[in-house]
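note to self — DONT lose this again. spent like an hour looking for the file last time. sequence + predicted structure for the chain T wanted, 216 res
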Amino acid sequence: MLNFKILCIFSIFVQLCQIKSFSVDEINTYTYNMEQEAKLDTIILGAGCFWCVEAVFQQLNGVEHVVPGYAGGFTSSPTYEEVCSESTGHAEVAKITFDNAKISLSKLLEVFFMTHDPTTLNRQGNDVGTQYRSSIFCVNKEQYQLAKLFKAKIDESSIWPNPVVTEIEMLDEFYEAENYHHNYYNNNKNQGYCQYVIFPKIEKFKKIFSSEIKVK
């Protein structure tokens, strides 16, 4: 069944497939920085606990930064405790900054839909609540259209036995999570949640996407 799902997602992936004076050194540096910046793109993904999302996407070749945070709510500057109380409407998410010369948005979406269950409403496993909803927050219309198309193709393929409930919307505001949430898995590998929830998820990801893993 897993191999069938991988083949289906691969099939979907294929289908979607101030004016001033500068010195010479300054011009070269400026041009290099602009070229580097032009390759970077950002999308915000929610797939349950942001510790899991961060840990998985940190492994991907082409992903430059992963920052845990909150999006999709109706209050400003929410705290972790407030988000967990479901009083702010935010989802736990991760801001993925990636080099689009090394990895495509389609590949990121492929990883996203294969590393969590997008059919369970407001939950992932034993993590239950609106903050754990499956969600994609897009920063431009192109991302929005591709995410919508990807979701529709997955539903049509019947990879999952139930309909995909992933929310797709334009990003209003991203709030960075508190410092202790950053790089959580790598800093707390012996913690129970990391051992029993995050580690198996990473191992599954590595088996499916072995060719996409960063070389250390």
